[in-house]
Amino acid sequence: MKTKFQSLREKKGFQSVCASVLCILAGILVGFVVMVLLSFFNDRISIGDAFSGLLILLGGPFSSGTAKYIITNLGDMIFYASPLIMTGVSVAIAYKTGLFNIGAAGQFLMGTMGALLVALNINTTGQPFLGVLVWILAVLVGAIFGMIWGAIPGFFKAFFNVNEVIVCIMTNWIAANIVSWVFTAMPHLTNAGAGKSGYLITTAATGNGTPKIGLNVLFSGSYLDLGIVIAILLAVVIFVMLSKTTFGYELRACGANKYGARYAGMNEKRNIILSMAIAGGLAAVGGAIYYLNPGIEFKFDSAYGKLPDYGFNGIPAALLGSSNPIAVIFVSLFIRYLSVGGDNLPSAGFNKYIADIIIALIIYFAGFSKLFSELLQKRRKKAEAFPAAVKEMKAEETSSQVTETITEAPVPEEILKEPAEEEKGKEA
């Protein structure tokens, strides 16, 4: 009879979690080795500093010093995780449908543009209720922009079988140029008063910023706002849709085998387009809730030269989370946790970009998460096969012993005697 732990090990979700944990541990271990090597080649850094740096990194925002800075950094960590959750879930839902959404960066930009066009062109200063309505409208417009942009590679994939990765790369750079061009043509939105070049005014100037809902009091000094609640709710909704609804089953069926799904009567072309549209809308909401914050500035004049990191960091968030929207929430928070710890590394003599190296290593190992999962599965099967083989060997051994016993047993003398005389006479 199987124990509870053995039953747990057989579950695919548990194996995925173990594989992700192995990726994270491998990344941290290699990053620590890098810090130790730096201590050998830099006279100002000792091996003890490498251990201190590792503890600071693992401490995340809790290694910030005073309680005030810890609370502020903790709030900022959660805030910066919000758009990462959205792009991670965006990549995850496309992957569930058998697609690779590498266009989250362009969808992120289109959502940003749509939201800011609404929020920065309508002034609701002094009218908080109207400001909330405009904010909701801005998020919805941003989501629609992203859905349209995400549906483009889905359309080409569904009807012309063009690889979605190629189309996504093209739409990324097209979006970046469109965003730069649109806002360059709107000088009244440029933040010229602050003496900066190429930045837009923020929603603080128009009163349409993301509501704080008291989080600014709980995490004083941080940017944290309603955006994290929106991100978590959307991730939960996508999880329920994928696992509990007929539409979600059709998306997963198309991802598993689109020919089988078509044979079963499902419209795989429609599902491909809808999947990419939803993915685009999620990434766009990430851009909207990020730049609608009153404290975040958008540098529009260089958008064509550098795509947003959030669009690509969503890929490892989805990989480490095994494309599970709920797991993506925790992975995104963990990635930001390490980043905050990296900001405190200079106190141990290391550059803060060491954290970026470790995160990059974790991302690199995330590509091997499936390999780790398969290795764990093989190990489990081998462990299960061993007792079965032992039982089979014992059964064969017992069978052979019984056979030998029967063979070697003495034959009764009565059987070996010749028939009695009477019997012989009867036969005659």
Summarize the structure.
By secondary structure, the chain is mainly α. It has helices at residues 4-10, 12-41, 47-59, 67-96, 104-119, 128-160, 164-184, 215-218, 227-244, 246-256, 258-263, 268-291, 309-320, 325-343, 354-366, 369-408, 413-416, 421-427.
The overall pLDDT average reads 86
Query: For the terminal residues, how far apart are their CA atoms?
Result: 66 Å
Q: Which shape, going by the Cα principal axes?
A: globular
**How many structurally independent domains?**
2
Strand fraction: under 5%
What is the string of SSEs from the N terminus onward? HHHHHHHHHHHHHHHHHH
The CATH architecture of the largest domain would be Orthogonal Bundle
Say what the CATH topology of the largest domain is.
Answer: ABC transporter involved in vitamin B12 uptake, BtuC
Number of helices: 18
Structural class: mainly alpha
Can you tell me the CATH class of the largest domain? Mainly Alpha
Describe the overall structure.
By secondary structure, the protein is an all-alpha fold. It has two domains: 11-64 and 344-376, no CATH class; 71-336, ABC transporter involved in vitamin B12 uptake, BtuC (Orthogonal Bundle). 72% of the residues lie in helices and 0% in strands. It has 18 helices and no strands. α3 crosses α14 (325-343), α5 (104-119) packs across α12 (268-291) and α9 runs antiparallel to α14 (325-343). The chain is globular.
Chain-wise SSE layout:
Layout: H1 4-10, H2 12-41, H3 47-59, H4 67-96, H5 104-119, H6 128-160, H7 164-184, H8 215-218, H9 227-244, H10 246-256, H11 258-263, H12 268-291, H13 309-320, H14 325-343, H15 354-366, H16 369-408, H17 413-416, H18 421-427
Helix pairs in contact: 2-3, 2-15, 2-16, 3-14, 4-9, 4-12, 4-13, 4-14, 5-6, 5-7, 5-12, 5-13, 6-7, 6-12, 9-10, 9-12, 9-14, 13-14, 13-15, 14-15
